[in-house]
Amino acid sequence: MKAKIAILGATGAVGLEFLDILAQRGVQPDDLKLLASARSAGKKQIYRGSELEVQEVRRESFEGIDIALFSAGASISRDWAPVATETGARVVDNSSAFRMHPDVPLVIPEINADKIGNAPIIANPNCSTIIMNMAVWPLHQRNPVRRIVVSTYQAVSGAGQQAMLELEQQTRDVLNGKAANPEVFPVQSAFNLFSHNTPIDEQGYNTEEVKMVNETRKIFDAPDLAISATCIRVPVLRAHSESINLTFTEPMTAEMVRETLSDAPGVSLIDDRENNHFPMPIEASGRDDCFVGRIRKDISQPNGHGIELFVCGDQLRKGAALNAVQIAEKLSMD
Question: Which entry of 240, 290, 305, 312 is annotated as an active-site residue?
Fold first, then answer.
């Protein structure tokens, strides 16, 4: 990638993943600027053998920058994305700040890279939305999906580095007979699972579930697509899992699903019935592809229109940093 890049939120879990992915793609230290809040300014990061100092974000931080990768939360994005674009930088934002704005493309490159155009801000979808639709979109292209019912099993990595450290500490404490001390989450995460800790609307859906519905409809350009989601946090460090039930317009067999997904970009089939080996977060962690398996007919739909499948994807990579870097790569080609 031939571009001057800034990372806002460089010391967080996704920010660190940005560094790993950019290093793998050959971005040189001289082409990279690390930005964060005043609290993190002055920290050092080793990048491709060079020591880079994290700088406090300021108005002048984006001068000379081609692409700014944001992962510092919605309020920070709302404050700083307009500042970055005023200097000529293009912003790839990992927060929820702009996802549903009608003038901001919401992009998964394997699905709708053509939507990027000349937009100054491009939004990264929610991690659960990305991981689900890496599997669903290729099938939707073959046989339009009429309904999606999804249940997520979301790793604590979705809440950032401190949530991962909290799960590790709570696990040690509980195993040593001590009480777990929740601070990042409202309840204990070790040896527990709970409804995603976002506000509940008047219909009983939490914010994460609403994101999956609205974002999928926007990405698919299908405003009436029937979707229902249940989002649950589980005691897994990284890599989200999702159980997905699909209803298609025409009959769909498990064999057709395997055939379609076998060469889908960014997807790996892990569907070994004989050995009971299917996608697991421990195997998806640190991997770029989303793993898909447990592919089978939904026996509750006798007309043959229903399919069940299970997906695992690394929330910090394809669910966040990798997807943003792939967008940045498209921008650098312009």
Answer: 240
Cβ neighbours around 61 below 10 Å, total: 20
Q: Is the pLDDT of residue 334 over 80?
A: no
Query: Containing domain of residue 36, as a range?
Result: 5-124+320-332
d(CA 267, CA 292): 7
pLDDT at 59: 93
* Residue 123, number of CB atoms within 10 A of its CB: 28
- Tell me, what's the pLDDT at 78? 96
Q: Quickly state the pLDDT bin for 79 (edges 50, 70, 90).
A: very high
Active site residue 240: yes
Residue 197, pLDDT score: 84
- Residue in the block written with tokens 């890279």: 113
Give yes or no: 290 in active site.
no
Task: Give CA angle at 126 (10, 7), nearest 5°.
Answer: 15
Tell whether 192 and 242 lie within a shared domain.
yes
Q: Based on the domain organization, do 137 and 181 belong to the same domain?
A: yes
Q: Are 279 and 310 in contact (CB under 8 A)?
A: yes
Question: Two tokens at 263?
Answer: 């060469």
